[in-house]
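Q: Could you predict the 3D structure of Chromo domain-containing protein?
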Amino acid sequence: MSTTQAQVARRRIKLRSKDFESDEYLRKLESLTLRLTGAFPGEPPMDRLDVAKLVMELMQGHEDTLGAFAPATAPLAPRAMVKLPLRHWRDYTQGGALFVILRRCLAHKHKHQLRRFDWQSEHKCAEFVGMMRQCENDLRDKGVLRRAKVFLSPDVPNDEVPALRRSVLDMGAVLAGAQLEDGVTHVVHRDHQRQSQQAGVAGGTARAAGSVLGMTAAGAGESAEIGSPVSLATTMTVDPSANAAAGGAECVVLGVSGKEALVHYRRHPDSYDTWLSVATATQSAAPGSNLTSPPPKKQNLEDHLGLLSARGSGGGPTHVLASWLVDSARFNEWCAEEDYEWEDPTVTAMKASKAGATSGGTLGSLDDEGGGGGASAEAAGEKRKAADGEPTGGQGPGPAKAARREGGEHVAPPQFAERVAPNLIRRQLVTPHRAVAVAAGGDGGGGSVAVV
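A: Sure. Here are the predicted structure tokens for Chromo domain-containing protein:
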């Protein structure tokens, strides 16, 4: 692996309390608060604000003890555990991942009669991480947290295999012996595109990202006032040398809301998504950025059940570049897969050949065939929206509708589902099957009957 890949991430995550006190965020916690109050009947009741403060406290401790800058470990040494995926902190569903985390942490707090969680000393840090490990076990027992099973493709150079194997172990994943082995979630390929990507990024894209990474040029170590818990974006302290550490990471604007824009740094976990001022984001936006509409709703209605992590996004294993493993181990958190998508070299060659064959046509025909300069960027933007659960036709996701089945049965949308066991999911019915009403009426479906 290159020296750039081995450098530690320079961005720091710091949450803002005012974002966790917003009305929009507090509304998300209403049902969760009621269920937590019922789980501890002998303790003082909690309101939404109490739960919001607890979430912020736990997320900050989670980052400080297990993140890239965790003081208890060397930059690339194995941590006690891998950071919990950000989607679990976004799961506000009944009995979902966030409820499981908060219930375990509150039980620990009441048992040890703690006023607040502390991780400053070595002893307290070990105690906090131990509590997080219990949360991880609870999530696995419930079936919402699965282990990644990784197969290293034969195209990976032999000299890179040992480092990739270590990354797999550091991330708590399982190394598969064959691509067709049962349960494989990811196939890792050689970074054959890496050199050309870095060359392109070093031009306009890296300069765009560099303007964001150097936005504290006059004061290294200053904190940008950014962050929103609605998408769980964060405030980050920026180091001027972060551009080199990130390998020329691009700043992709996911959407605009008011005077702020939500940006995603490629080759970073989603927990590093950040709110910047619109002016800064516009100046630094990479191709494919969304500068005209609000950010997509980053909520997959099925993913809170942990289904996608077990089968891949398209029903089979996800094919990614080898740097996905290395960067994930560096952050101690799984990076966004769509930033490392692998394409078969044969398909790449066919596209290049097709683009060359149509080079004599008009600019419009090149754009239609995918040979235009902005085509790949647009496709990347649409692909990320699709991964976040938003349709790519320009329409918002809209309200989820109940699925209608045979017999007039209506099933509630997936966000109301609850996993009660690793292999058992409880779904809610809006309207029962006609057979239920027939059985209840005792008339065989023929209407009212005379009773003799």
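Q: Anything worth pointing out?
A: The chain is about 40% helix and 10% strand.
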